[in-house]
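Notebook B, p. 112. Complex prediction, attempt 2.
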Amino acid sequence: MEPPAPRDLFPGALEMMILQTLRCAPLHGYALARLIKQSSDDLLQVEEGSLYPALQRMLKAGWVSAAWGLSARNRRVRIYRITPAGRQQLAREVSSFERMLEGIARVMRPNES
Amino acid sequence: MTARRRRRELAAEIEAHIAERTADLVDGGMREAEARQQARREFGNPTLYAETGGEVWGWPWIERIGKDLRYAARSLRASPLFTATAVLSLALGIGANTAIFTLLYASLWKPMPVTAPQRIYQLWRHAESGPWTGDFGYSYVLFQQLKKSAACLGEVLATSSFGSEKFGARGISNEHVSGESVTANFFTALGVRPLLGRVFETQDDSTQGGRHAAVLSDAFWRRRFQADPSILGTTILYKETPYTVVGVAQPGFSGVEAEASIDVWVPVTSSVEKVWLTSPDVSWLRLLVRLHPGVPPARAQALFAKTFHTHLADKLMPEADPHWRAVLEAEHITLRPAAAGLATTGHRYEKALLMVMVLVALVLLIACGNVANLILARNSARRHEITIRRALGASPARIAGQLFSESLVLAAAGAAAGLAIAAWGTRLLISYLPRPEVPLAYDLRPGFAVLGFTAAIAIATAVLFGLAPALRVGKSDAELSLRTGQRATRASFSGRLLVAGQLALSLLLLVSAGLFGMTLRNLKAADLGFRPQNVVTFDLSFPKETPEARLLQTYDRIRERLESHPGVVVASYAWPGIYGRGGWSGSIEIVGRPAKPGEDNDAGMIAVSPDFFQAIGMTLLQGRYLNASDQAGEPRVAVVNESLARHYFGKGPAIGRHIILPPMPKNRIEIVGVVGDARHYGVRENIWRMVYLPAWKIQGDSFYVRTSADPRSLGGVIRADVASIDKTAQVENIRPLMIAVNDMISQERLTALLSSAFGFLAIVLAAVGLYGVVAYGVSRRTNEFGIRMALGAQQGDVQRLVLRQTVVLVAAGVSAGLAAAAALTRGVSAVMAGMLYGVHPEDTTIFAAAAILLAAIALLAAFLPARRASRVDPMTALRYE
């Protein structure tokens, strides 16, 4: 069975954005999805079908930790928190992402460099 | 954390997510119910995401297979009839394959428990053409030359053929063991270590008085001596000679013959007359070689061949007459892989077993066809279920995987049942092989190889019958069939194609069954020149110090005593015995007729008691039989057979002519009678020129007793008679002569029996398959038939409609089968010619009979559902869904 088609821009983008969002505060899944959507000014829509498997992957990799807590509406939810390993991973991903952006930019606009 | 708990938590989290979204939407002003629906719709398929999310952990792949298999087992249990039919078909197919493979493996391929068995080869001395074909042994002299010449390539070792030998130890002396005489390097070259004491060492087989040392096999040591270590150094009696036990061989090693389990080994030099070690004419050894690492077998073979042919040219050719020279010239040495040992019986049945292996593979293919058809039908009946599961988010691949899991479960169940069938079948098979003096002792425990083979064919069958249907369903469009109750009315094309293929394969099997069956019939009906029915044969053995003169007396007294019984017509003895007792031949000379240059003057000789001809039922053509007065001193008269008389005397009289035989060159022997030709050595053997001499001494003669009663009832009488005359004599190998004759055609019997059994199985499987497809097609078209009949079609019309399609199917299958059979028999005609007797591989009668039989059975199988279709009540049929 194939996983649902990735809607990410590129592999790892969703994980990077999740880590970035969690850097400021621990969040539960729904809040995380909403926040990503808001901070991208509705440009990016996080598919739930990718979000939860991605969170599971990150839990397994040890980039985030999770604990059951209460949401603002007093509902039992699982709250995700970034770990030190997650911060390192975020730094790595950001730097490689920036290098990639720069590379793409040079290719797209060769004369300006 | 367990996978189950993890998935539960994930599901709870997802529920919370949806609840939060709902709450948000309600806050935005939506009504609660609408908001919940909207939230769910946005989220997508929660079960699927929980599943994929959970799979991040651990081994989703294996977990999923486990789950699929459990689900498959459950869904198969729910349809027991389908499951039983499929498993039975597969069990028969897989069981037959495993049984044949087990026998092939045990008799030909199972490596000996020695170090690096793949470097062990047999120096196979054989001739495929020339006056004598078959395998030959080596003289001790030739062995030593080959061993010396190949010292830098490998270690040559020799063993003499095994047999049942007298044995005694610890006061009991009337036992028999299977013994083997081996060279001193036997154990060390094979890499067999002693469990206790030592194995043989160089001094043990010194030709200047080798030691009387014996090594016991581990199994024998445990069985006979209860694993008593104090047996070392004690004396045992082997062939009535004292030997000292010097060691016990490593557990599991039972000699270099897969079918024999050796109890005792002694050095070759200890157990034979001196002439056997010095004469290049006595060929009694079989040779194996362990090549040194990295030595290419081709190079070793070239060297062995050179040494061998030099030896023939120097030592044997100069003395040989033209006939013998031709025999020697046709011989060659081939280095035959012998990781499994000498495998004498295995090589004897190799062709038959490989042929049967092909046949059972075809049977398995037919069985696969049946199961595939069952699955196709089942899957289309389950279309609704499958559609629902797709709608619930299962991907096509996932569904295909689940359907294929069912096939795997079916194949596994079939393999398990097949192993049970095979265990029984292999023993049955072996009981059909002729029983030699030492019973066949194959190791038939299903080891790694057999289990691996069974698993491999089970998986292969699952792929064959399960993969295509599974992929087909997986691909089929989900939406199409969700619309209610839409049903295919056309009988599935692939199903019909499968049935045609099955019919074609069945025809192949029927044709081979016909060919081999006809071969067996011809062999049985072949004129032997004597009548083996109602004849009992047995051997006698005496302590070796018994004087020769007394032996002859004892034999005659036993003969007379036997003849005194009312059930016995006539008793006689002969040396060498016929059928499986070896032959004695030599170059004869006709007095008054100089030999032509290059002429073959070989004739077979048998020394017989006077009534031998009547006992085995030969016919007298001229002159007289031998009588008691001929039997005094060395032979003066002889009876010859028709072939000899015709060759030397043409139409002229043979009676009264004189011949000179090699064993007694001074005697001019007068021909007193001519008997009809008889095949004493095998149905397929050529007729030899024969000389029958009056027995003038006893040299291990066999008895032949013609009875008017059942020959099998005579055993007790014979034993009692022999014991009453000489208590030291031992009766061995009592059996009807018919059995000895049948043993000669046991390979053909085996092939014929198995090919008919599997032909029958094939035709049953194919008929069931055809019945299934037609019946299924009819049941799907009940509606259509109802309409046709409501519109005025008669019963006959409907029957014809169903049968017409079947006739096309059967015709296609049968003609494809005929074409394949013709192509195949032509393709392997060289192989077939050796296996057939009196029947052409493309015998039109057999082909036609097979085609007619198959077509008849196929049409019968189709007629039953066709008749049912025509009896459909139109009203019922129209209401039928």
